[in-house]
Amino acid sequence: MIFDVAVLGGGPAGMAAATEAAHGGARVVLLEESPAPGGQVYRAPPAGFEMKPDRDRQEGDALRAALAASGADIRTGCRVWGLGGGPLMPEGEAAAPFSLSALGADGVPFTIEARALILCCGTHERIIPFPGWTLPGVIGLAAATILLKAQGILPGQRVVVAGAGPLLYAVAAKILAGGGSVVAVIDAATPAEWLRALPALSARPDLLAQGAVWRAGLLAARVPVLAGAQVTAAEGDKVLSAVRVGERVFQADALCIGHGLVPATEASRTYRAQHAHRPEDGGWVPVLDAAQRTSVAFLYAAGDGAGVRGAAAAPAAGRLAARTALHDLGFRLHHASKEDAALARARRTGAAMARMMALRPAMVAAIPAETIICRCEGVPRSEIEKAAAAGANTINQLKHFTRCGMGPCQGRMCGEAAGALLATARGVDVAEVGFATGRIPLRPVPMASILGDFDYADIPVPAPAPI
Amino acid sequence: MKTRFDAAVIGAGVMGCATALFLARGGMRVALLDRGEICREASGVNAGTLTMQMTRAALIPYALRAHEMWMNMPAWCAGGDVLAKTCPGLSVAFTDAEAVMLEERARIRREAGAPIELIDGRAAQAIEPGLADGVKLAGHCPIDGFASAYLTGRAFRVALQEAGVTLMESTPVRGIDGRFVLDTSAGAVAAQRVVLAGGVWLQDMAAWLGLSLPIKVLINQLVVTERMPPVMRTVLGVASGLLSLKQYANGTVLIGGGWQGIGDRARGGVAVRSENFLGNVRLAAHTVPALRHARVVRSWLGLEAETADALPAIGPIPGIDNAWIIGSVHSGYTSGPYMGRILAQAILGEAPELPLFPIDRLLHQRSNSA
């Protein structure tokens, strides 16, 4: 069977897109890596695990319930690794249905085909490297929210929370609420930056109030908050024991740090969609029209993966993508698109937060020469600059010169910082160094799980070259 | 017009780089142009296999000399290195039919000068403990090896600069006029001689000079694993040549062999063909069972050029003085630097150490000369 619509990623955008498409009468499949739909902000608890639902959980539950009732085929716990079809066809052949290969939750491989594909792949966390960032005990802010939200696990007993954006205060508050101690909050944003964001934030008084509660909690717990500051080193012998901020040293067993979110574009890059570099959207994003279409026919993108606007703005974008896809597939839509005022407010707030979480060039400039940028391959900043001097002009060339981005994460962690360093070293705009060519697998894939049972005689070995 | 170069080499892959380097060392002022970056097409993305057992028999004498060049690259390439390493090579047969093919192919290659001996499965496993059971016959060549092809551009760049070659990357050439003035994105570039070294794009380049030279495009797929503990220590293939396997010092295993993906001259490598991806990794895991424990991290594609008779196009362009061509060398990475060296010898007016591969045989018909 060929689905009408496949949705890759079951966060708020993906849940809403799949629900909307199913309501429109399409045969829909949703593929999600986690055990349950929800995404990072609206994450569901593991089966059988009880936690007091917070506001995010309630929002997520509503989207999950609508999705479950929509009739969409929901495949969770599956790892999509292969992409094909669509525009990826031999010369002269027409575009084909999109084809997605995945490992199911049971480890069994399967492939689905769909006439339209909506990418709702979310983001990767940005961590601008600093000395010691690879020490055990240093984790991402978003990673900390997964621990805290999913199962109420504290990242450590004495925690420094650092970075940029609203997650900072959310994580600090959740650690306090969970009984942990927050040693310090190190906010890269200055009070002036928060003031500038205020008008946009005031569009969402609920969030402002939430932020005020978080801050009050920190004040009551006498947690030092350093504004306009950044971690200069994570220190420790084998594991983290202290966090240095200039002259100040905080003893800690965990550092939760994040400098924003980077749209996950592996799939849109693999499908050769056009991308643009927009720092205020989080970096490289697929170029979309006003109705969420990418430059590739029947390929759409929505949610933070198409430009960071936050979870609250994502469902409407997902629904719009679904309606556009259905329209393009020839479905007759019975209800009109409604872009309501709440969505506009959510987008405005999301954009303000995205600006605060955008890459800070000064932070990249401050990375010491010997600090590792690519942790998979152990490539320090100095090697990237050496390669630039030796003639590496683009990210793809930098890979060849240094192996930066050639490890298991395929540049998800290092690509952005490496690009910024390369661009600076060359004295060009970061857009000019480009992005790594998208190739499958989207995630490392175990050979054992894709090989299946086969007889040697059945391997379709092509005819040999002439001798 | 600023400078008139003695030679303009179009295409900065391994053939173009080597030709340009040796021309410059021979005293010429050389411009080396590429529409993209140095060695970022086939020369930088191939499997780096340096083996006699996938080389066409007619090219073995060239490949043997090139093998030596790769192994001593820093010595002639101003320190530039692709980490080439000699190791035993095995080409294995799992079936009787493959054994027959292997026997015949090994004999022909041996006659051409490749030191290939035939051994049984047990002897092959002694050389390669990672090899699966069930091998009926194996070709063993003690002087095969492999390199890290992605380092090729970095390696040549140093030497080209030291030799005074003007390297013009990201400078597409749009055409050549009758006086060898190149129309490029960076303006006109004039030269006394031109060398076409454009890989699969040789067909388009030849058309600039009014030649009809059909070049077939192979879209070779490659797959690489995560770093893993040592599982093999040879460069390994199968009798048909449709597998190449090696494990690098960093632990990654590269799986190739020329399974075809999707792509073309205009778009480059578009996508991996999933059934060929599966066939290729199954063949690999059948040959080295420990690969079942690997995780695949990336696949990619490289475009290989092939002439009508699958033999190289290297030599003067008939009817046009001072125009030369180099490319379409089967397993071209293996023989590449030596091919560049002998073409440079010919252009410099010396007798090439080994014969070139003139293209008269390949030209369809001459259209009106440019």
Summed up:
Chain A is 33% helix and 21% strand.
Can you describe what's shown?
The complex is a heterodimer of chains A (467) and B (370). Chain A has 467 residues and is an alpha/beta fold. In chain A, 33% of the residues lie in helices and 21% in strands. In chain A, strands 1, 2, 3, 4, 5, 6 and 19 form a seven-stranded mixed β-sheet that branches. In chain A, strand 1, helix 1 and strand 2 form a beta-alpha-beta unit. In chain A, helix 1 runs parallel beside helix 2, helix 1 runs parallel beside helix 8 and helix 3 crosses helix 4. The longest helix of chain A is centred in the last third of the chain and has 17 residues. In chain B, 28% of the residues lie in helices and 29% in strands. In chain B, the strands form three sheets. In chain B, strands 3, 4, 5, 6, 11, 12, 13, 14 and 17 form a nine-stranded mixed β-sheet that branches. In chain B, strands 1, 2, 7, 8, 9, 10, 18 and 19 form an eight-stranded mixed β-sheet that branches. Chain B has a two-stranded antiparallel ribbon with strand order 15-16. Chain B starts with a strand and ends in a 23-residue tail after the last helix. The chains are: A alpha/beta (467), B alpha+beta (370). At the A-B interface, strand 4, helix 12, strand 22 and helix 14 of A face helix 5, helix 7, helix 9 and strand 17 of B.
